[in-house]
Amino acid sequence: MPQVMYHSGFIYSLETALKMLLDYQVVFLGEQHHSAEAHKAELDLLTGLYNLDPGLVLALEMFERDVQEILNDYLQGKISEAEFLERSRPWPNYPKDYRPLIEFARLKGIPVVAANVPRRAAAAVARANRIAPEVLGPDGPYLPERPPFDSRKYYQLFQATLADMPAGGPMGHAKPRALYKAQLVKDAVMAAALDFFLDRRILFCCGHFHSDYHLGIPYQLRKTHPGLKIAVIAMASVVDEVPMNRLSQLADFFWIPDE
Known about the structure:
The chain is α/β, with parallel strands linked by helices. It has 11 helices and 8 strands.
């Protein structure tokens, strides 16, 4: 059985760690998108937390706000899986990595939040180098009323990752600051997408950069809901890349997969 390592260095069984997570209202699992270990962790967390709290809500970066109704229709059995997949723009690795989450949610009646801003909106912000409803066009209503909250540390981390980003793509050749604004829009929209469910426990699966160091989505969420209890889980596979004195800042828990 997998284990989760608490930031103080103690190792807990999954059963004990799940009970510890009940102290938090929003639990983020920062994944590496093509990591089989991360996707197994997501399903284990979803099933384990649901067994302890049937009121659980699942939120996903992998679906965008404008397909929420389509996702709801599939979860409620109103449309077929084929129609759902045709209309919801699933990620290429959906069948192997995210379908188990959706199917478990459908089976158990777990609400799923399609949290992300549409890619076209993020690309528009990057091109315009400006965050405003009119820049997002038809996706403007997804933008919170307050501008996204900035963070110098987050910007520094974002700059450090740009060298690893592929050239081109939907963001084109935007300047670093413009790309960062698009990143802030994603985080702010994903945080705001949770507003309706903050009276319930939420498991949020996202790319780890959106939750590492309690920045990204947790940062935006805490700025608007300062009393919210938020836990961040990181995969233990990232530990080798992080200095020991920064581990407790990176996440509250570290997921240790099966040997």
